[in-house]
């Protein structure tokens, strides 16, 4: 699971949970995989992101050092910024661990890089 | 012509647990290929497949449209999302699988963000109690008129799709195309039939929905 994908996940589906976002990450295995840098794609994803949630996720997996705390103005033409965003969004991958609902504490396991967001019938 | 994704990493044993690509799958692949130019022109940023099974369709879409989009897929079957990850890897594309019910954990953050949505649902007419498993039956068991799972997704479409977003849905005749068109018209979408094909007892179609105002 890339942190870009993590940015799109909530646990709001759990009965009684209001926001369920952002999900905490406790990772036991994190990989960094080389992905071709595509500045146009990264630029188009920036407005769709919750940036503070991305910063928190990067911190949870120990890859926040390079990531700016805020989106810079005119980021579309700022290659340095886009490269840092690219790294955290697309190259850092959670392979094993748990995602944690910030309200209920419910854990969602990540196995083989895939988050298991299924709920039991009594949780919906 | 785009080649069909390589699925040689999946064995006949894999297909005890996940849906083996069949005529309905290939009709959806043919549809995506037919629509290639239209989809390119959309410049999609987010593509999502619901019920990805082996992952062959979302992998094909990623091959067609290239690395300018995020490709997400969901399934309720753990073996299917594992297979989808392997299929994407075997074909050199990035696809992010998530084990979830339809779009459950994604729909709040993906509101109005999905540019291309594809769904080859469990459309077979079955007794209602066969719907809702997490195994291979989830790939076909559609309950009454084969509509029970389709009908759970339909009301979520308007919220999910971006302004120019498109939704492709595989159906059979028994699913009642006219009624689906009426339901989606109420939600502000127009429908067209991209491709239809008879396969044994099934008369398959792929429907395409776009917003009326787009």
Question: Which pair has the most extensive contact?
Answer: A-B, 31 and 27 residues
In total, the number of domains of chain A comes to: 1
Query: Hey, roughly how much beta strand do the residues of chain B contain?
Result: 25-35%
Which series of helices and strands of chain A comes N to C?
HEHHHEEE
Query: Into which percent range does the helicity of residues of chain A fall?
Result: 25-40%
Helix content of chain B: 25-40%
Q: Quick one: how many beta strands of chain A? A: 4
User: Any low-confidence stretches of chain B, pLDDT <50, length ≥5?
Assistant: none
Distance between the termini of chain A: 24 Å
What spatial form of chain A do the alpha-carbon principal axes imply?
globular
Helix/strand-derived class of chain B? alpha/beta
Based on secondary structure, the structural category of chain A is alpha+beta
What percent strand of chain A?
15-25%
Major sheet: arrangement of strands of chain A? 1-2-3-4
Main traits of this protein?
heterodimer, A: 124 residues, alpha+beta, N-terminal domain of TfIIb, 4-stranded antiparallel sheet, 4 strands, 27% helix, globular, B: 214 residues, alpha/beta, 7-stranded mixed sheet, 7 helices, 25% strand
Structure, described:
The complex is a heterodimer of chains A (124) and B (214). With 124 residues, chain A is α+β, with helices and mostly antiparallel strands. Helices cover 27% and strands 20% of the residues of chain A. Chain A has one domain: Single Sheet (N-terminal domain of TfIIb). Chain A has helices at residues 3-6, 39-45, 51-60, 79-91, and strands at 24-32, 92-100, 107-111, 114-115. The longest helix of chain A is centred in the C-terminal third of the chain and has 13 residues, at 79-91. The mean pLDDT of chain A is 97. Chain B is α/β, with parallel strands linked by helices and 214 residues long. Chain B is built from 7 helices and 7 strands. Chain B has helices at 23-34, 36-42, 56-65, 78-90, 148-153, 157-160, 177-186, and strands at residues 46-50, 70-75, 96-99, 114-119, 161-172, 189-199, 202-211. In chain B, strand 2 (70-75), helix 4 and strand 3 (96-99) form a beta-alpha-beta unit. The longest helix of chain B has 13 residues, at 78-90. The interface between A and B is medium-sized, with 31 and 27 residues.
């Amino acid at each position: 699971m890339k942190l870009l994908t993590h940015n799109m996940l909530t646990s709001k589906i759990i009965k009684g949970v209001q926001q369920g976002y952002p999900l905490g990450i406790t990772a036991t295995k994190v990989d960094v995989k080389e992905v071709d840098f595509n500045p146009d794609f990264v630029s188009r994803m920036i407005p769709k992101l919750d940036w503070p949630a991305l910063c928190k996720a990067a911190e949870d997996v120990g890859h926040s050092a390079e990531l700016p705390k805020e989106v810079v103005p005119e980021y579309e033409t700022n290659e340095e910024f886009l490269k840092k965003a690219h790294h955290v969004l697309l190259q850092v991958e959670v392979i094993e661990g748990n995602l944690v609902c910030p309200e209920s504490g419910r854990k969602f396991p990540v196995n083989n890089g895939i988050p298991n967001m299924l709920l039991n019938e009594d949780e919906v | 012509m785009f080649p069909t994704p390589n699925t040689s990493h999946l064995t006949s044993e894999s297909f005890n647990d996940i849906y083996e690509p069949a005529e309905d799958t290939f009709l959806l692949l043919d549809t995506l290929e037919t629509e290639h130019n239209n989809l390119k022109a959309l410049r999609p940023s987010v593509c999502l497949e619901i019920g990805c099974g082996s992952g062959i369709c979302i992998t094909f879409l990623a091959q067609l449209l290239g690395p300018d989009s995020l490709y997400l897929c969901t399934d309720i079957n753990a073996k299917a999302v594992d297979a989808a990850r392997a299929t994407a890897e075997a074909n050199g594309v990035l696809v992010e699988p998530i084990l979830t019910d339809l779009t459950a954990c994604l729909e709040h953050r993906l509101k109005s963000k999905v540019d291309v949505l594809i769904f080859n649902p469990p459309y077979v007419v079955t007794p209602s109690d066969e719907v809702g498993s997490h195994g291979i039956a989830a790939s076909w068991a559609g309950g009454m008129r084969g509509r029970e799972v389709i009908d759970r997704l339909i009301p979520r479409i308007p919220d999910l799709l971006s302004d120019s977003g498109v939704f492709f849905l595989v159906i059979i005749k028994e699913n009642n195309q006219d009624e689906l068109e009426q339901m989606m018209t109420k939600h502000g979408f127009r429908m067209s039939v991209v491709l239809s094909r008879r396969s044994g007892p099934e008369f398959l179609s792929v429907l395409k929905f776009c917003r009326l105002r787009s």
